[in-house]
Amino acid sequence: MGAVMIPMMKDKGYDLDYAVNVTTHASLTGALMPTSHNMIIYTLAAGGTVSAGALIPAGIIPAILLMVCCLIAAYYVAVKRGYPVGVFPGWPEVVRTFVAALPGLLVVVIILTGILSGVFTATESASVAVTYSILLTFFIYRTMTWPNFLKAAAKAVKTTGVVLLLIGVSTMFQYLMGLYEVAELMGSFLKAISTNPIMIFLMINILLFILGTFMDMAATILICTPIFLPVAMEAGMHPVQFGIVILLNCALGLNTPPVGTTQFVGCAIAGISVGQVMRTILPFYGALLATLLLVTYVPAFSLTLPRLLGVITG
User: Fold this and answer.
1) How many Å apart are CA 59 and CA 42, to the nearest integer?
2) Of the candidates 12, 4, 24, 2, which has an alpha carbon nearest to the alpha carbon of residue 81?
3) Cys-Cys with 213: which of 159, 246, 256, 287 at CB 3.0–4.6 Å?
4) Which pLDDT score, from 0 to 100, does residue 301 have?
5) What's the rounded Cα separation, in Å, for the pair 303 and 100?
6) Model confidence over 112-123: pLDDT tens digits?
C-alpha cells in the first residue's frame, strides 16, 4: 500500500516524512484487525488459555481506537503544516468504490462468522479464506496469473516455515520456562519493585516495547507470552486483554529502530532516511502510546465485545 499511497501523497503536496508516518502508522492497525495471523500465534503461545474466537473480536474496538488516535495525530500535523485541503469526491464515488471492494471485504466476514458461529475452527478458516481468495482473484477481479500465484505460494511457504520453526522453538522455550520457574522469578522480580498492578502493567509494557524494537513480531509474541502472561494474570489482567496489549507493543516496535521493519520499508519506498522520519514522529508515537495505555488500564476496550458475543465470561 505504501508504494501506492506515499507517491500519491507526495504529488498532492505532502512532505515525505509525513507521508511515511501516516502510512506506516495506519498499517499497524492490521495487527489488531481480523484476520491478523499474529492473533493466532498468540493463542498458540498462550498454551490454550485463549481461543481465537475470543481474541478476534477483542481486537476490533482497540483497532478502531488506534485508527481514531492516528487520525487525530495526522490531522494535527496537517493543520500545523498548512497542507492543502482535499476535495471530497462525493458519496456516489464512495459507494461505487465500496461496492467494487465488497467481494474482497467478505473474506473478513466469512472468517469471523465461521469462527464465532462454530462452523469451522481458526485453522479451517484459513483454508476457507485462501480458497475464496484464489477464486476471487482468478475469476472475479481477474488480477491473479499463474506465475503470480506460484510467487504467492512460495512466499506463503517461506513465511509459514519461519512461523512453524518459531512455534517449535517456543514450545521448547515454554517447557524450559516452566522447568526453571522463570515466570515465577519474573513475577517475584516485578513484585519486589512494586505490588501495585498499575506499576506492574507499566513495567511489562516497557519491557515488551524494548524487546519489540529488536525482535520480529512473531518471535516476540512466542517468546514473551509464556514469561509475562502469568505475571499479568496474577496482577489481574485477563489473558485476552493481555493478547491485545502485547500485539500493540509489537506493533509499536515495528515502527521503532534499530529493527523497525515497517519504518524501514516506508522510508525505502519514499526514498527518505529513517532519521528524517524519526524527527517528526512524536505525534504519531503519541497516538500509539495513548491507545496502548487505554487498552492496558481500561479492560472494557478489549473485553466488552467478546463478552457481548458470549465467547468469554467473567
Assistant:
1) 13
2) 12
3) 256
4) 94
5) 33
6) 788 777 788 777
Evaluate if residue 30 carries a pLDDT over 90: no
Residue the block writes with cell 485477563: 238
pLDDT at 56 (0 to 100): 86
214 pLDDT more than 90: no
In the predicted model, what is the mean pLDDT of residues 11-29? Answer: 90
Letter for the amino acid at 137? T
Half-sphere exposure of 230 (CA within 13 A, CB side): 14
- On the question of pLDDT at 183 being above 70, the answer is no
Residue 4 banded pLDDT, cuts 50, 70, 90: confident
Longest dimension (CA), the chain: 62
Q: Say how many residues make up the chain.
A: 314
Q: What string of DSSP letters covers the chain?
A: -HHHHHHHHHHTT--HHHHHHHHHHHHGGGGTSTT-HHHHHHHHHTTTSS-HHHHHHHTHHHHHHHHHHHHHHHHHHHHHHTPPPP----HHHHHHHHHHHHHHHHHHHHHHHHHHHTSS-HHHHHHHHHHHHHHIIIIIS----HHHHHHHHHHHHHHHHHHHHHHHHHHHHHHHHHHTTHHHHHHHHHHHH---HHHHHHHHHHHHHHHHTTS-HHHHHHHHHHHHHHHHHHTT--HHHHHHHHHHHHHHHHTSTTT-HHHHHHHHHHT--HHHHHTT-HHHHHHHHHHHHHHHH-THHHHHHHHHHTS---
The pLDDT > 70 percentage for the chain reads: 95
